[in-house]
Specification:
Blueprint lengths: L6 H25 L3 H4 L4 E6 L5 E4 L4 H17 L10 E4 L11 E10 L2 E11 L29 E5 L2 E2 L1 H9 L4 H29 L1 H24 L4 E9 L9 E10 L2 E5 L15 H16 L7 H4 L2 E4 L21 H12 L18 E6 L4 E6 L29 H7 L2 E8 L15 E7 L2 E6 L22 E4 L6 E3 L4 E4 L4 E5 L14 H9 L5 H8 L3 E2 L6 E2 L1 H15 L1
Parallel strand pairs: 10-11
Antiparallel strand pairs: 1-2, 1-5, 3-4, 3-6, 4-5, 6-7, 8-9, 9-10, 12-13, 12-16, 14-15, 15-20, 16-19, 17-18, 17-20, 21-22
């Protein structure tokens, strides 16, 4: 197929498809109502061809993208292409058919040119609240099926001939604690897809449907060939790894993530046999979501700069035992499944570390994704607040980890100003945690501390945090990062809060999220003493930790700190001798 469209036209059409995806995403970003969409960018967009194959995606969450192909197939299975007309749009949030939990609303919008289908504009957005047991619809404890987690929508034409179905939208509004945000975000999604529909139609008008279809085929085929070549460059073999999630609620056992990655020529199989059984809680990851972050890890390690579309997925097979927490049987709960994504992503990376040591990174600081509810006495209304506390990334070959960044997905920390302007809270601290980063020749990123004071009554916290028992791993001699913790009213009388607990809080309480540090890469005693000194000057490593963790002796006071080279060489020599 590669010879059917000349290279210049192919390049222009590929650029246009990418631009369409970005324009859809920008429209969502600019018109959404909720903080998590407008500020945290917890949404994704993609362009599909007329056969329901993903051709281009926007620069948003890969976890949504891997699931989006399956969601579109399920939407079209319920509403076949021949039944669709201009202005129709299909909504679904069924966990099994989409990305694994009810707050994610997928919308699929067809685009027609002169009466013929030319493709689909598709987006997904995480909505603030879709009902269920707890504000934010992401409870872990007390959940035994997804009927407790909120409103479930099978593939449904919510828009027909550009007209909104008032009855269905009314049902959605009646089943959320935040109808203004949910309906605002839903209409932002729909408006953005109208933009994508117009741009796809214009592209077909400019180049003709035949050329557009041939270019889409060529893009997918070239992407598949590129991915297969990248997999072929990795050494064949079976690579195994295991890690653990802390638990699935207070008093429960850890959840084992076991993975075997098989590289066989130009194909890769990721098998989670041996992982823990599904849980009687919200801590389950439906198979589409498990696939998504497995795909994302392979893409990062093999062909990170190539297109991400249907072709990139074809050489990769992802399996998990039915009935495991990475492929549960419905109606298992899955509201808080986002907290699992780092662990599947990092398990694949950990497995492939021996095969691709120069491309992998150590484990990242785990993010926190708590939700809050209660009564806002100043605005005289109920509220639901959503938080993302994104910390450091793992160290790599040749580079330290980054600070305060999303790792496995492309979200953002929600700005302090946005939260304080829209929610009854004050962000009292937002800072890096000293000595939290995993030591190494290259150190991990620091943990983040974010303290929120709530000026709300009847407060309800649904915590969603990790790495309070199992620290982020280091690689090739790098050390783990520090453990995370959550506390209420930090200080002498502070209360420790379990990472997945649902509990109440009082007006004026401070809830402090102190996230784990990311893992280091390489032997800490090989780190350049000057780099350790810079970390001390930046107050991310203490003088005591410089000596203990890196065997670097820092002398002086204030801005006159310096490395004692002779003492450092002696200390490191003794440490290496003791180690050997």
């Amino acid at each position: 197929m590669s010879g059917r469209v000349d290279p210049i036209t192919l390049g222009v059409i590929w650029g246009a498809l990418q631009s369409i995806a970005v324009e859809i995403g920008t429209t969502v970003h600019k018109t959404a109502y909720s903080e998590q969409a407008r500020e945290g960018q917890d949404f994704s967009v993609a362009v599909f061809d007329a056969r329901g194959r993903m051709v281009a995606q926007g620069p948003y969450s890969p976890g949504h993208m891997g699931a989006m192909s399956f969601a579109v197939r399920n939407a079209l299975a319920a509403h076949p292409v021949e039944t669709l007309k201009p202005g129709d749009a299909i909504l679904l949030n069924d966990p099994l058919l989409g990305s694994g939990h009810l707050p994610d609303f997928f919308i699929t919008q067809p685009a027609f040119h002169e009466g013929e289908l030319v493709g689909f504009a598709v987006n997904i957005l995480h909505h603030t609240d879709v009902g269920g047991a707890r504000p934010g619809s992401q409870a872990v404890e007390g959940i035994f099926d997804y009927f407790q987690e909120g409103l479930r929508i099978p593939p449904t034409k919510v828009w027909q001939a550009y007209r909104e179905h008032e009855g269905i939208v009314g049902i959605i509004a009646a089943n959320t604690r935040t109808p203004d945000k949910v309906l605002g975000d839903l209409r932002a999604q729909r408006s953005a897809l109208r933009v994508g529909e117009l741009r796809l139609t214009e592209l077909a008008e400019r180049y003709g449907r035949k050329t557009l279809f041939a270019a889409m085929d060529d893009i997918i085929a070239r992407t598949e060939a590129s991915m297969r070549a990248a997999i072929r460059a990795a050494p064949d073999g079976v690579y195994r790894f295991e890690d653990f999630l802390d638990d699935c609620g207070p008093g429960t056992n850890p959840l084992r993530v076991a993975v075997a990655v098989t590289v066989d020529g130009d194909e890769m199989t990721i098998d989670y046999e041996g992982s823990s059984p599904q849980t009687a809680s919200g801590m389950n990851s439906y198979i589409n979501y498990t696939r998504s972050y497995s795909y994302a890890a392979v893409k990062c390690l093999t062909d990170p700069l190539g297109p991400m579309n249907e072709g990139a997925l074809r050489p990769i097979t992802v399996r998990a035992p039915e009935g495991s927490f990475l492929n549960p049987r419905p109606p298992a709960g899955g509201g808080p499944r986002a907290i699992i994504c780092y662990r599947t992503f990092e398990a694949v990376i950990g497995a492939l570390a021996p095969a691709l040591p120069d491309r992998v990174a150590a484990a990242a600081s785990h993010f926190a994704n708590p939700t809050f509810g209660g009564w806002d006495r100043a605005r005289k209304r109920r509220f639901v607040a959503y938080e993302l506390v994104l910390s450091g990334t793992g160290a790599r070959a040749g580079k330290d980890g980054c600070e305060a960044m999303s790792y496995a997905f492309n979200a953002s920390n929600i700005p302090v100003e946005a939260q304080e302007a829209n929610q009854p809270l004050v962000v009292e601290r937002f800072e890096l945690i000293r000595d939290s980063a995993g030591p190494g020749t290259y150190r991990g990123g620091c943990g983040i501390r974010r303290d929120l004071r709530f000026l709300a009554d009847e407060g309800k916290l649904t915590n969603l945090s990790e790495r309070q028992r199992f620290a982020p791993y280091g690689l090739f001699g790098g050390r783990p990062g520090a453990l995370a913790r959550t506390v209420i009213n930090p200080g002498p009388d502070e209360q420790l809060v379990h990472g997945k607990v649902s509990r109440e809080f009082e007006y004026g309480d401070v809830i402090s999220f102190q996230q784990s540090g990311a893992g280091g890469y390489g032997d800490p005693f090989e780190r350049e003493p000057g780099a350790v000194l810079e970390d001390v000057l930046d107050d991310v490593v203490s003088i005591a930790a410089a000596r203990e963790q890196y065997r670097v002796v820092i002398t002086g006071m204030g801005t006159e700190l310096a490395v004692d080279d002779a003492a450092t060489r002696t200390l490191r020599a003794h440490a290496r001798g003791a180690r050997s």
